[in-house]
Amino acid sequence: MTTNFDKVVDRKGTGSIKWDKYADKPDVIPMWVADSDFETCPAVLEALHQRVDHGVFGYTEQPTDELADAIVYHLQRCYDWAIEKDWIVLLPSLVSGLNLACMVAGKPGDTVISPATIYPPFKTAPLNAGRELLTIPMKLENQRWVLDLDALEYALDSQDSVRMILFCNPHNPGGTVYNRDEISRLHALCKAHDVLICSDEIHCDLILDQDKRHIPLAMLNQDAAQRTITLMAASKTFNIAGLSCGFAVVANPDLRQALNRAAPGLLPEINLLGQTASAAAFAHGYEWMREQNDYLRANRDYLYQKINALPGLSMTLPEATFLAWIDASALNLDDPALFFEEAGVGLSPGNAFGDQRFVRLNFACRRTLLEKAVKRIANAVREIA
Q1: pLDDT tens across 202-244, in order?
Q2: Domain limits of the chain?
Q3: Cα–chain-centroid distance for residue 74?
Q4: d(Cα 94, Cα 92) in Å, to the nearest integer?
Q5: If we measure between CA atoms, which residue out of 87, 27, 98, 76 comes closest to residue 262?
Q6: What CA–CA distance (Å, rounded) separates 200 from 231?
Q7: pLDDT tens, 120-135?
Q8: Which of 41, 139, 179, 258 can pair with 288 through a Cys bridge, CB separation 3.0 to 4.6 Å?
Q9: Other beta carbons less than 10 A from residue 179's beta carbon
């Protein structure tokens, strides 16, 4: 298989959140929300066509045998993680999973811990569930953004109301792939204080560093499996987020039952076409995924070189994801995202993630578009540097 990731796909006027945000500013290049501009895997398209041609879209088994088998196969193939089909809890999205997890963590008024610099729903989900939110800082260590485990240990030692920690691996933003020692220490702290873990691993298939390997936290040992809710989906990797299909892997039957009891009336049943697409992606999309990661790695390396050569900007090298976390603090801008939008590049504002000095850039696009965006960023920076 050789996929043309340089293909131009016009997404304007297609209901795309990413592109239609700038419908009244057509010259702005959208590089913000975390979906790619690539057509999905051919196997996914073929499966969707076959299902549409069937012509009936009634109530559907949750999950279908096809999807459950594909998830089991994918996790075994990619991570040597052997799970049972009945551990799978389908979700319409990972955001739904975060909210549902917080609802089963203790009782209203208890505490849920989240990283301080993180994907925004990590901070709203505990509050939506009536839990108290406690944030733990991230720190830059050996040019990697990692959770400050010393700060986490202090927080757990200081409070007895903590019931869950929300963890993100690979981390968004920053793209850190946590190693075995790091997740083992995190698990040990949670075990010592009897704290549940909700581990968002949605970007786990987007590993760019070839010497890195994603380790699902729940497969560390039996205790980790019993206290962890693992959130995953094909949506980021295969660009099918609009089909609303994710899942949790929950080995603990009591925890799994609690999630299933909390969901009815709050979460819709899972999109039939989302199940079809996800099953095809996990069962038949492995080579396409590898090709995409090769392309993303080249985009990342190009962006890393260019951004770090500019005055006033810097970025660490994302080990995974297609999301660059760019430090604009040296430019002394009140609103870095607005500054770059006015220069013709739409980025995610850092304050949404917890640090207004930064912007997040999505480099999952054709190279020529990335090059155009980088030139606009460079011109804008040089005018004020």
Answers
A1: 999 999 999 999 999 999 999 999 999 999 999 999 999 999 9
A2: 17-41+286-384, 57-284
A3: 18
A4: 7
A5: 98
A6: 5
A7: 999 999 999 999 999 9
A8: 41
A9: 14
